[in-house]
Amino acid sequence: TEAKAADFFFGHATARNVGFKGVRVDEGDLIVRGRGPYAEVHRLNARSGAGYVKGDIRFASRLDEVRGPMSVRLDLETKLPLTDAAKLFDEDIASILADFETDTMPQTTLKGAIFNSAYPEFKDKSYIEVAAACPSPLRFKGIPLDYLDFDLVGRKGITSLRNIRLGYAGGEANAIADIL
């Protein structure tokens, strides 16, 4: 049998007092739309207390035997407690977030593309770009910081931290780092 996809679809959803991956959502709404093997969650706007996730998530697929999308593209803005953010990501990112402690909600912008390993032509093409800002006191691996801002770019074999700005004991440090 040959795989088929809808010619066009469009919808809107609103929800209140729901959970997603163990994160409580007080209210949210989104548009879902697509054509053929392409779909997107558009204008996602989920709120919980003072926290939020806003943006778009796009899914591209092929009409073949592979189950799951060929790629997922993210364009999100978030302001979430670290414990909730950790629940939304895989264990690698959750373990990094566990190194941080703060009573405030860092603001982040997250952009990227994640390609399915079933498609070898996209091997090593996945990437992530994160801009994060925590203007209030936090701890990193138990070390107290006054604030922390940075830009992170993750590509094949390298993670680059740029525009690192942190406050420590009333002073300020600026840095860049590459993690190979």
Explain what you see.
This protein has 180 residues and is mainly beta. The chain is 8% helix and 61% strand. Strands 1-2-3-4-5-7-8-11-12-13 form a 10-stranded antiparallel beta sheet. A 3-stranded antiparallel beta sheet has the order 6-9-10, with no helix packed on it. β1 and β2 form a beta hairpin. α1 packs antiparallel against α2. The protein is globular.
SSE layout:
Blueprint: E1 9-20, E2 23-35, E3 38-48, E4 51-60, E5 71-79, H1 82-88, H2 91-97, E6 100-102, E7 107-115, E8 127-134, E9 138-140, E10 143-145, E11 147-155, E12 158-168, E13 171-179
Helix pairs in contact: 1-2
Can you summarize this structure?
The protein has 180 residues and is mostly beta strands. It is 8% helix and 61% strand.
Question: Which features characterize this protein?
Answer:
mainly beta, ten-stranded antiparallel β-sheet, three-stranded antiparallel β-sheet, 2 helices, globular
Mean pLDDT: 94
Main beta-sheet annotation: 10 strands, antiparallel
Tally of extended strands?
A: 13
Q: Please give the share of residues in helix.
A: under 10%
Strand-residue proportion: over 45%
